[in-house]
Write the structure tokens for this entry.
Amino acid sequence: MGEESELDMNPALKITHIGGPTVLLEFGGVRLLTDPTFDPAGGEYTTGSVTLRKLTGPALNPEELGEVDYVLLSHDHHSDNLDRTGRDFLPRAKSVFTTVEGAQRLGGNSVGLTDWQSLDVTTANGTTLRIVATPARHGPEGMHRGPVVGFVLFFTHAPDDAIYISGDTVWYEGIEEVARKFAVRTAILHLGAARVDAVGDFPLTLTAEEGVEVARAFPRAAIVPVHYEGWAHFSEGDWEIARAFAKAGMTHRLRWLENGRALEIAA
């Protein structure tokens, strides 16, 4: 049997939803965690004039989660993407990939990436996973909420089976460019149309309708909604998402996660 045939050319992706933007990704011998949030429900987090309120706790705590190879952190400066217990979790990973500004603030094992910058890591299976930083804009042009990064992941021996993680972003040309550059099979989207009164009545993350636009841009991708629940500042939930995708004839594209239970998406 040749070396290529011994590789799992298209390993299934297992996604476990911890809560909010926090998911565990397991595939091809690597475990990655997105935007760690492990604080219990009821917390309030104030930054300047904005207070975020956490409504639900995590489905799994860090001890139940086990070892994680890498953390993919869209941004460090909002507590719904990195809360207090999540911040304590970061040193447990080999590396934390995030924005350049975030890495400067966090220090330690954090690695700052600019848009389109990529890094290769070797998995326990001996394959090479490429992690690419992708553009994100956390709100309207000129009024965004600070630097954010998304991610594309793929094994170098199987580039046509990429995973896209949007991070906190609205629909804009940066996402269209991601779609032109990569063959995405699974798109994990931060939806929920986040709004905070202190900065105006405009969405800071993808609306359900914008999620449909992302799905159109990635026509082969399974769409996995996350980060639309668990915090008080989301203005749209699963009902709005389901309705928008049904209206667009795309219900079959959605893959819903259940907190604490793994969902497997075949290549």
